[in-house]
Amino acid sequence: MTEPETIETTRWGVVIFPGSNCDKDALDAVGRICGQKATPVWHRDIDLEEFDGIILPGGFSYGDYLRAGAIARFAEVMESVIEFAGHGGLVIGICNGFQVLAETRLLPGALMRNKDLRFICREVNLRVERSDTPFTNMIETGRVIKLPIAHNEGSFYLPPKQLEELESNRQVLFRYCDPNGNITAESNPNGSLNNIAGIVNRQGNVLGMMPHPERRCDPLLGDPDGFDLFGSAIDYINRN
Amino acid sequence: MSSREKEPTHNPLRPGTLEEARAQTMNEEEFERVKEILGRVPNVTELAIFAVMWSEHCSYKNSILELKTLPRSGKRLLVDAGQENAGLVDIGDGLAVAFKIESHNHPSAVEPFQGAATGVGGILRDIFTMGARPLAVLDSLRFGNLDDAHTRFLFDGVVRGIGHYGNCFGVPTAAGEVNFDPAYSGNPLINAMAVGVLHVDRLMTAKASGVGNPVFYVGSRTGRDGIHGATFASEELSGDDDAKRPAVQVGDPFAEKLLLEATLELAETDAVVSIQDMGAAGLTCSSTEMIAAGGVGMDLDLDKIPLRQDGIVPWEILLSESQERMLLIARKGHEHKIRKVFDKWELQAVEVGRITEGGRFRVFQKGETVADVPAWDLVLGGGAPQYKREYRKPDALDALAAFDPLTLPEPDDCNRTLLTLLADPDIASKQWIYEQYDHSVRTNSALEPGFGDAAVIRVEGTDKGLAVKTDCNARYVRLNPRRGTILAVAEAARNVACVGAKPVAITNCLNFGHPYKPEVYYFFHEAVAGMGEACRAFDTPVTGGNVSFYNETLGQAVLATPVIGMLGIMDDVTRFNGSSFVESGDEVYLLGDANGHGLGGSSYLKVIHDKVAGEISTVDLDHENRLFDLLVKLAEKQLIRSAHDISDGGLAVCLAECCITDRRTMTGVSVDFPADGSIAAHLFGESPGRVVVSVKPELQTDFEREARECRVPFRWIGSTGGDNFRWKDYIDLPLGELADAYYNSIPDFMNRS
């Protein structure tokens, strides 16, 4: 009899900048809920070798002073994150983490003030645009998932030509939509171009998204749609 | 000295004068007492210290004798009210909940964004300086009418300020309430409550001890902001308060977040003897309260205080209310542990003094003693003055109570009446507000704003949940302060019970006018008496709170508003109830007196008939207790699917809300519950002790048996289903129309320019 294939525990680092405030949530989601090894990574740490995936969590790194994510990109850990991503490691930036990834140019675009110039915290519907990525292999294309957003600067912007490129490269992973998956102006909470809520880089190993999947992993908090996202990434790491 | 202009060369040792004392709201008698205590005339620095510590805000001099009548201990309370920065409630497994509410009314009237933001910051520091991680913030707000542009400016600024601070800090703003009445237009009320959890064995006290122990100043630098904030809070607004902007502090939630993490890391060490937030009256209040509590003294070196600007004189340093600062007494020989943690978080931690023998608070600058005062004489519970104030029942009250609402004509169109009530900003959805607050950060928010009668928050690392809510219907208090306050406690407890938690303790924020006016003080006296009566009956002791007097503009007091912050506990956080109907085909019951009337002081009278009058309901405290027990049992045994308290707008508004508050599952209802008398009273009466629940048909028998066992009257009133709210021939409205009225009201106001 052959041994059943053992699923290895994947190892995740969650970066903590001064002012990060969703670090515990990400650690809890990947660690307690998904059962993986999740470790805090201080912004001065530069050794990421032990990790299979890195999460840049939400919050207000450095108080979001100057511009959301603008100071965090200079944190010592970020050079290591760029290197980690360059070697094909999975990087997930959530909310402020997405803003940091945009500032470091690991992802294209900028996150601007919400169109109503107000902070918005609510559950939104998202259409999953592709299931052939490390982050969505457990979610079929076109499925509508519900995740909360909580941000002041989430309006995705990219100049027209680059936006076209982003679309033709199929880098858009999540779009704000209505409960039936229609991409409408009413379902766009923050004025993002093309209702964009989350994107990946060209190589597909770096994800940035404004909605919070870590807030929808524990069933206590609502339908655990975020679980499928982390589950996909864990599965991808185990298969590669 | 109340002005920011100073003599060319300030002499901190110059003797203070009676005029200067008066300018700092100290009267002649108090000035004489200071001279007696010191055996000499105080210098200007000492005078400022006495004036601020004896201000209403710090000394509670006009309220403490009344507050002492409240039930302030109980088997779950780990510290009695007033002993520490916040009340502490045992929740088992070595954990305790720290919670407290405080006002920031006057700063918010002048500068709504920063006023509200720093209100949140201050109450958070009170919680985490005890070693507790904040789990939730709640806000109880009162404004003038939204058709007034200045009110909209204040409202918008306050909501942004609360959001700015809480969102950045990373604490869910989980619940609260908002009411609008012209009486608040010049003096809005901004009460912020924070709730945290700590390991009992890591409680950090606010009691200094250990002669020779070093005193550390930690956090942001000291500037001129907020000087005389405490005395500002102790006088009425003049209507020309823009000049008082310097008395409003500026908040930095990022700095506070770092302070939080550093403080909680320190709580894990043995390096800290005690710690206190520098809140009202800054360095002065934190130093003197800590040493007075511990029966020790302190030498403080002003030359070492980190300053933000030059030329700040001693009394300014001592009274500054610059934000995000704390005072910490370290264990001698463990200073390096303090420095290590604060270095990690890139915060300042500077040794500024030492604990001494003998109870004196001595302040030095450039080698000179600029103040030398006995700490005990400064503080509440020590030598600070305590006054018994005169009170007199206002003549108008009896006439108001004599009004009989049943003399009014019956509503000619109940549909229209219901829609009008649903669109009233007091009743309408508060989505516009809570969507500006991060209410799901930290992934413990089991029941988010808008979906239940109270917020439900998981206690991290356990299966337990906390339910929290603030309440106060000031219309009721206006008509009968004692009964109105009993109703406020009862409603807060009922809300917490509706989600499935047992009410265990309260905090309170008492917002009143000028205490020297006997008719104002009557409301205060009666409110405290009512709170005590209700809290004794419910066994929900008062763990602490805050008194805010002088809420007046141009001599006109706000409505007396004793806000109750209720804490409830549930053993299994997954067993909570929302307020919305879940599915078609469920049976709908009314718990409590089916013949409830309660039009006196109701929203119906105010909104439809522009009247705040009538006799308000009495509360059957025994019935409420049985109701709370039943609701907790129903949740634990999972026998109901929703529970919603009947309050503003009566049964009709309650049922409409059950249909539409969860927009994902809007569910209609057909009600078969005929009026036996006044239709207005039947539909819109607000008599207390009543709750609407929905029950799966197969659980009806179990549900009814449980209600019978708990001796709570119940009556089947209808079934869920359809796309309308139908109630005999009184009401028939599509859910969409109800939702439009309910959800669009506040946004429509705020979209006006």
Account of the protein in words:
The complex is a heterodimer of chains A (240) and B (753). Chain A has 240 residues and is of the alpha/beta class. Chain A has a single domain (11-239), classed as Class I glutamine amidotransferase (GATase) domain (Rossmann fold), CATH 3.40.50.880. In chain A, 22% of the residues lie in helices and 25% in strands. Chain A has helices at 23-33, 76-86, 96-103, 160-168, 225-239, and strands spanning 11-16, 37-42, 53-56, 90-94, 110-112, 120-128, 144-151, 155-157, 172-177, 196-200, 206-209. In chain A, the strands form two sheets. Chain A has a nine-stranded mixed β-sheet with strand order 2-1-3-4-11-10-9-6-7, with helices on both faces. Chain A has a two-stranded antiparallel ribbon with strand order 5-8. In chain A, β1 (11-16), α1 and β2 (37-42) form a beta-alpha-beta unit. The relative contact order of chain A is 0.17. Chain B is 34% helix and 22% strand. Chain B has a seven-stranded mixed β-sheet. In chain B, α10 packs antiparallel against α13 (335-344) and α18 (481-499) runs parallel beside α21. The longest helix of chain B is centred in the first third of the chain and has 21 residues, at 149-169. The chains are: A alpha/beta (240), B alpha+beta (753).
Give the strand order, joined by hyphens, for the main sheet of chain B.
8-10-7-11-9-12-13
CATH homologous superfamily descriptor of the domain at 1-73 and 205-388 in chain B? PurM-like C-terminal domain
Sheet with the most strands: spatial strand order of chain A = 2-1-3-4-11-10-9-6-7
Largest sheet of chain A: 9 strands, mixed
Question: Hey, which two chains have the biggest interface?
Answer: A-B, 30 and 30 residues
Count of distinct strands of chain A: 11
Number of helices of chain A: 5
So what's the overall shape of chain A?
A: globular
Structural classification of chain A: alpha/beta
Structural class of chain B: alpha+beta
Architecture of chain A, according to CATH? 3-Layer(aba) Sandwich
**Helix amount of chain A:** 10-25%
Distance between the termini of chain B: 41 Å
Range of helix content of chain B = 25-40%
Mean pLDDT score of chain A: 95
In terms of quaternary structure, what is this? Answer: heterodimer
Measured on Cα atoms, how large is the radius of gyration of chain A? Answer: 17 Å
Going by CATH, the architecture of the domain at 1-73 and 205-388 in chain B would be Alpha-Beta Complex
Poorly predicted runs of chain B are: 1-7
Overall, the morphology of chain B is: globular
